[in-house]
Design goal:
- The protein is of the alpha/beta class.
- 40% of the residues lie in helices and 16% in strands.
- The protein has 30 helices and 24 strands.
- Strands 3-2-1-4-5-6-7 form a seven-stranded parallel sheet, with helices on both faces.
Length: 709
Amino acid sequence: MRLLVYADVDLNLIDGSTIWVQSLLEVLRLTYPAAQLTLVSRETLKGIAVGATLSRDTRIDIQCCDPALIAAAKPSADAVAAVVCQTIADLHAKTPFDRIIVRSTEVAQHLTRNPGLAPKVWAYLLQSPALTFADDSLEEIAQKLGGLIVQTDAQRALLEALVPEASNKTSVLPPMVTVLDQTQPVSANPDGKGVRFLYSGKYSKSWNVEAFFDIPAACAAKGVAASVTLIGDKVHREADDADFHPRILRKFKQTPGIVWLGAMERDATVAEAVHHDLGLCWRMDELNDSLEISTKFLEFASQGVPAVVNRTAAYEDILGTDYPYFAKNMQDVVRIAAKVAADPAAHRKIREQVRQLSRDYTYKAASQRLKHALHLDTSGPAPTRKVNVLISSHDLKFLKLALERLEDSGRYAFHYDMQKKSVIYERSLEPLPEADVIFCEWCAAQAVWYSKNKRPDQRLYIRLHRFEAFTDLPKRVEIDAVDGVILVSDYFRDLCMREYGWPREKLVVIPQYCVAEQFRRPKHPGYEVTLGLVGMNDSRKHPDLALDILKQVRRQRPEFRLRIRSTMPWDISWVWNKAPQRDYYESLFRRVETDPDLNGAVIFDRSGPNMAEWYRNIGYLLSTSESEGCHTSVAEALCSGARASVINWDGARTLYNAYVNDTPEEMAAAILRRAEAPLSADEMRNLQDESAQMFDISRTVGQLRHWFG
């Protein structure tokens, strides 16, 4: 396995960006111990800073771009990106990479133009898309690259809302921190020298560093003893303030209460943090819209040192809205210092809380996130000859992603026999002479034909969903010629055994998959009193029953509400142009407006691909349909940590037994019972874990890999 990393940073420096590169390489090595790692550097390494540390690591192949080409390309960022992309392409041409992780929007956009490389590229996006419109380059990146990585859930939510193509292919990789010694108990002011602040990083105006020099005097004016330790020597030369650089250098040495330690290695900086009370990650107001988390915040937290931070959506997500060390101005910073000095016991509790929080951002935690994000095939080297697989179907929407993952492994060569209709097979080609395996998605007309016409040496597999089971197609299949069948529930397995005489040993039950990790996101406030319904554009989905359930729940718990995620019926001609259907929906909407138990409690959300983000609002997913195959929305909701309430459609109990009831009244009662005992964080994680084992795409991919060879 070969992995390449590129970040648009100068590795001859030490700052948050270069530390990220070092951390990512260490996490990749932890995740894929046998992988060959290549690092592409934009600059020639000079044997200093992070570059020196990486150069000493013989397990990393460092390739520097041609300095003459880089020099000629500057100052054009696009031209530099072109040089970097050519370097990556040349390396890939010699020995292909399995994954290429790029931290540069410009380089990522260039790589979209290389069809051979693009599917292997995962772009790490730091910048959030503009709130007013999505950048066209982001749409192209989302469409053509293999995956996207962002730093926070808030970034992912915004990206998916503005760039629909990013949905279901964007993963979250927060900053990664090493864990040094976390065994010693946290303490406050062990040396009695007052409140000790610590800052480490670069010195620029946006980072608000000049205000840090004023903290000791501002605190002293309020009777609070305080000092500020500063680490680092990278001082920006600001274009609009020529004196900034020399002024900061003077302040390092001349400001009372300031202790400047200069540049320090990363581990030494983290170890130094334990001797302080508060970190400084307080930025200028212009960065309040940032959706990022400071690496330094997490490094300080790992040593039990909480940081002063701006009140941003990203920090509120991980710290809660009541975190006591949010700051907007110097008055807030002084207030925080006074609080720490006056109540050491309360501060010790905060120190312990942030140290616990930091454990979600360790290399081990990042390794798990990367494994899910990159979904690399680690089952062994690809065979010397690819297995030829013929896929025959009239509709691949439920299988497309699984096939992409199999194709990405390099083990298979896929060929397609696509049909216009499910009930009539029109021969578009002879069974490929070289086909080793034939897979029929849907047990439709093509499955019947292949079961009667494939060669004896070719293996044939079928996946049956729901509609086919109630046609005459399955009984026309020559089951003796079939090597295996996937069915979406035990109900359909038993039906096929009973009605068509299919042998049990050939039948495998795997529900329609979802990408479970995509749905594993923090819930939004209020989710615990929110019911959800997905799809209402067919009266057989029975949104009327969902309203019945909501009405009964609200009589005891009026804070409950219902969110319906669906295309509106008037947007679908075959629904709205039929008088009975239109009458049904008009009556439904009148009921929502006029029933006092429903008015103001029903929210209609437009349909879209960012379903995983929508489930963050949902505590209970309703399934009120007359019939379903396996109702994947329920599986998605469970993977998100929501509970379900399912009416007893045929087969429901074989999939969701704990959540199935016979009537809307029983469903409402079950929701009210569960509302009395909300899920704890551990219980929600257990629900997500168990649901992922049942419904994650890895089950389908693993079964197909087993069959295909």
